[in-house]
Design a protein that fits this description.
mainly beta; single chain; Hypothetical Protein Pfu-838710-001; 149 residues
Length: 149
């Protein structure tokens, strides 16, 4: 189960280079239901996500690099490339996943925070540098972003 909230970011936080960063590329074999392939640095996986905006079922299966390369030409839409910064949220055990999109999705920047349960999600107060919440807008799901020109 994945419980997350998503926000637009208009200005990068200070000292961003001090946080761990991963390079991601992901493509969608299907968007309804969501079936995604992803390269996360040197880790490869296939993911299934159920319908939903804030709460969804999610299953991840490991892929080999060769399986990923085999599936890559089969994606629909664009291959999404982004840098993901992992920023600890002060005085909590939560992590902000800050995605800085590259290529034709730049300069889009989104922050996601994943929660252990619905109550902690409901009581979450975002940091001041977060912009508009877009959790309930399917327009900011990566599966949708892969289809827009």
């Amino acid at each position: 189960m994945e419980i997350e909230r998503k926000y637009l970011i208009h200005k990068l936080p200070d000292r961003l280079c001090e946080f761990p960063c991963r390079t991601l590329e992901q493509g969608y074999l299907n968007t309804d239901p969501v079936i995604r392939i992803r390269r996360d640095n040197e880790k490869y996986e296939l993911t299934y996500k159920s319908k939903g905006l804030m709460i969804r079922e999610e299953y991840n299966l490991p892929l080999t690099e060769s399986a990923y390369q085999h599936l890559l030409p089969k994606i629909d839409g664009r291959l999404i490339r982004k840098k993901r910064y992992m920023i600890p949220l002060e005085q909590t055990s939560l992590i902000i996943e800050l995605d800085v999109f590259e290529g034709n999705l730049a300069p889009l920047i989104l922050a996601e925070v994943e929660f252990p349960d619905e109550s902690s999600s409901s009581s979450f107060v975002p940091p001041a540098w977060f912009g508009e919440e877009v959790t309930f807008s399917g327009r900011f799901h990566n599966s949708f972003l892969s289809t827009v020109e």
